Amino acid sequence: MTRIQKGRQVGELWDRVILPNGIVGYVFQNYLKEVPNVQIEQIKLSVNRTVINKGESETLKVEIIPEEAKDHEIEYSSSNPNILSVDNQGNLLAIQSGMADIKVKAKENNVASSIRFQVYTPLTDMQINVDSLVMQEGDRFVILPVCIPSDADNQNIIYTSEKEEIATVDKTGNIVARKEGNTKIVVQTEEAKITREIQITVVPKLGEEEIKFDEELRVEQNEITGWDMEKLEVASVKDKIQTSYRIQVYNNKGQELTEEQRIGTGSRIQLVDEKDVIKMEYYIILYGDVNGDGKINSADLLVLQRHILEIEPLKGVYLKAGNINKNGKNPSSLDSLLIQRHILGLKPIQQREKAIEAERFDKKEEEER
Q: Is the pLDDT of residue 361 over 60?
């Protein structure tokens, strides 16, 4: 009960009180024991871990001192709820990488305690823009690894060449073809040791008189972009290449195409001599055609969205085909929007691209000089 008036008359001392049910009455002081008002004096916090992976949850353990105040109200708060959220039961949810302080405070006074947490985003997968290359002696190629998820905290990549006399690779993924032969480039993540391999075939350098491409096309190492989406039949493709070698065109399933059949992303152009020796091989890339059928439609939009949602990552040349805005990064919602605009006829996807890889090489060479 709570005393609302203390009796002070001579003789019998009666106190006026109120019960929890609201009844007001009088009680003789001899039958009462006065208890001091208890408040929270200290809040102790504990947790199983202070580093939580993105998407995981944890529960904060709270101890109230003194014990008599354990039922008093407390408040939970996060210094950055976009990184780590907390509910009024002390349940934590890691949302994205970063640091956040979780604070627990008594409502009745200024007693409080806090713990600092780190939200960590682990690497779960890694894809590269090619899994095999035919390179001419002296050619260069840039490996563009895509870490999944894109906000993984540790995206360090380690590159090694099986035979450096055939092809070398530096710490930033720049491959240089040294001499004729076969080797393998190993691409491995520092975290989780996820490994991808690129099979390298180095062939003799073709002379300028041996091959010439239409000026509308852009040839970067063994990738060809800049195609006219209205003229993708094999016959039209061959018309854009002048060479003394026999031209063979295969689809992305390895089937040789006839003159009237259509190419798509992942199709291959092979230059073959009279002895059926492959002198050079090129991959075709059509920006927006991420399923390799030579068209840009809702099927490509679905494939790209599944990549963005990390359901089914794009690989190899399809990864580059999905980078429609040509910034050399992992395809994103912006690229998805560009496909939608293309499908609706608002803005066709441009197949010409900037020399991103070449610019990187030129800059590196200049720094080395």
A: no
> Would the CA dihedral through 364, 367, 368, 369 be positive or negative?
positive
Classify residue 72 by its DSSP letter.
Answer: S
Q: Which residues are within 8 A (CB) of 268 and not within 5 positions of it... i.e. 6 or more apart?
A: 249, 250, 281, 282, 283, 284
Q: DSSP characters for 88-136?
A: TT-EEEE-SSEEEEEEEEESSSS-EEEEEEEEE----EEE-S-SEEEEE
Write the DSSP symbol of residue 204.
Answer: P
| Separation between Cα atoms, residue 158 and residue 172, nearest integer Å | 8
CA 222, CA 238: separation in Å to the nearest integer? 16
Do 227 and 284 touch, CB atoms closer than 8 A? yes
pTM: 0.69
52: closest CA among 96, 14, 11? 96
Which pLDDT tens digit goes with each residue over 46-71? 999 999 999 999 999 999 999 989 98
Q: In the numeric block, which tokens belong to residue 162?
A: 């099986």
- Identity of residue 109: N
Domains and CATH numbers, the chain: 2-31 (no CATH), 42-120 (2.60.40.1080)
Give the whole-angstrom CA distance, residue 148 versus residue 130: 16
Beta bridge pairs of residue 310: none
**Cα end-to-end span (Å), the chain:** 88
Q: What is the mean pLDDT of the chain?
A: 90
Distance (Å, rounded) from C-alpha 185 to C-alpha 163? 9
Tokens representing residue 191 in the block? 């975290």
Which amino acid, 279?
Answer: K
Structure tokens at 186: 């190993």
pLDDT at 287: 97
Hey, which residues does 160 pair with through a beta bridge?
186
**pLDDT at position 266:** 94
Give Cβ neighbours of residue 256 (< 8 Å, ≥ 6 apart): 248, 249, 250
Q: Which of 1-15, 293-307, 333-347 has the lowest mean pLDDT?
A: 1-15
Cis bond before residue 122 (omega within 30° of 0)? no
